[in-house]
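Notes to self after the Tuesday call (sharing in case useful).
The group wants a holo model before anyone commits to mutagenesis around the pocket. I volunteered. Ligand is nickel (II) ion. Logging inputs and output together so the record is complete.
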Amino acid sequence: MHSNVNELFENLWQNYLEVTPSAKRVHQLLGSSQQADIINDHIALRTFNLEKIGLEKLAAHFKAVGYQECGEYHFEAKKLYAKHFEHPDRNQPKVFISELLLEQCSENLQRIVTELVAQIPDDAVTADNFLYSGTHWSMDHATYEALLAESEYAAWMAAWGFRANHFTVSVNALENFETLEQVNQALKDGGFLLNTSGGEIKGSKEVLLEQSSTLADLITLPFSDGPATIPSCFYEFARRYEVAPGMLYTGFVAASADKIFESTNAR
Ligand code: OOG
Ligand code: NI
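Result:
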């Protein structure tokens, strides 16, 4: 595991860029000339709730660089459970980790996922690079489609594996924009497609957090029986409101998160 938080995030960022070419263009569009105002509010990772690779196994890598558990979230319809983590250094991004609750899924899905996960070497899970190691298995296109028919989340996870599925621009820190509406307009003017599930803006000032996101980039993945183009990763934008003077809300909002997950849906 990494012991340096900045090193961990630099690796997660480079790995995310490999499958999210639009991220660079987002920075050009939103950042000031020096780009020093692009601050990450949070990142998110996904997994399956099998003992070998469950949420806590991912969390251990963040705890090793000083993160602490801060909140938990339930997504009944999507069969997901999540926690968020914060670093004592408020400038470090928050971390949102979710897991698919396999016992609530079909036997076929459970069988497919168990077979994929069995191919991960035990020592891969504690290795420095685990959180940006991608997949440890090969999969054919029919298997991806079978997962997709039941759970978009399961299909995404089987295709892309362990990596940050999004980074999130802190709108509060931007110099050239004040509101999320302004950010969304600039993105649309720049040709980006936004996730409109639950509206372009999820949340409100009342729940202390407003969020929007792009639709995931479309990237060609080499399945075992040939390449296919599928959604990879996306970019999110978050504006936080004060809970007290000078103190921004640091949690997440389950109803909004439920819609953000859909940024990687098939289109
Ligand atoms: C995480 C979705 C939730 C947020 O900010 O509420 C989220 C995911 O898509 O894995 O990122
Ligand atoms: Ni997010």
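Two things stood out.
The first helix runs from residue 5 to 19.
Residues 83 and 218 are 28 Å apart (CA to CA).
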